[in-house]
Design goal:
4 helices; 2 domains; about 200 residues; five-stranded antiparallel β-sheet; alpha+beta
Length: about 200
């Protein structure tokens, strides 16, 4: 069904393009190339977000440089099955993710309850409260992480390497693809427009 709908859309687009004037076709092709380029840029940003496990780099930096330490407890662990979509890299399926409930008390006595699936090493939980330490921001305790147990950066040097050096290189590479697509689209448009104007002048 999806294939049939896709073919119908392509046929309609083909008819539409054939009905355009030469100048309109140039604008259409330019718009199409720029759209592909913007999509590539968006994919680059989403890819970087995926690599960072959807962690806000600024919050991660604040937790490394300006966090408070509080005592807390892992109170519950649930297994959650996440579906993995089909792609060129794998054939899909599912993966089991542990979701941890925990709480901690801030230095002003406020109890914060939170949960995370970013705890990659908490294997000692046996159904009763497990003591932990939590890093949090004093002005916003909802921004927190279990100390030493998440996949986030543990030091400023690790943060600089992963987020700025490695992350910057990957972002430049993927954004470069979008830039090249847009640049080529604009160059093709300008070249073809010159040719079209030259033909019109001859006529």
């Amino acid at each position: 069904m999806v294939l049939i709908v896709g073919l119908l859309v392509l046929l309609n687009i083909k008819e539409y393009v054939e009905s355009l004037s030469q100048q309109e076709k140039l604008i259409y092709n330019l718009t199409k190339q720029c759209t592909f380029g913007v999509v590539a840029l968006i994919v680059a940003i989403l890819f970087m977000s995926y690599l960072n496990n959807n962690i806000n780099p600024y919050h991660e930096y604040q937790l490394i440089t300006n966090s408070k330490i509080a005592n807390g407890f892992i109170t519950n662990v649930e297994e959650h099955e996440d579906e993995i979509p089909d792609s060129d890299l794998h054939s899909g399926g599912s993966v089991i993710v542990d979701i941890y409930d925990y709480n901690f008390t801030t230095e002003d006595g406020k109890v914060i309850n939170d949960r995370s699936d970013d705890l990659g090493y908490m294997k000692n939980f046996q159904g009763s409260s497990l003591p932990i330490q939590v890093e949090y921001l004093a002005n916003n305790p909802k921004i927190n992480r279990v100390k030493g147990e998440t996949r986030q950066c543990k030091s400023l040097g690790e943060f600089v390497f992963r987020q700025i050096v490695l992350g910057g290189i990957l972002l430049i590479i993927f954004c470069g693809i979008g830039y090249v697509i847009i640049k080529n689209g604009i160059q093709d448009y300008l070249t073809e427009r010159k040719k079209l104007n030259a033909k019109l002048e001859i006529l």
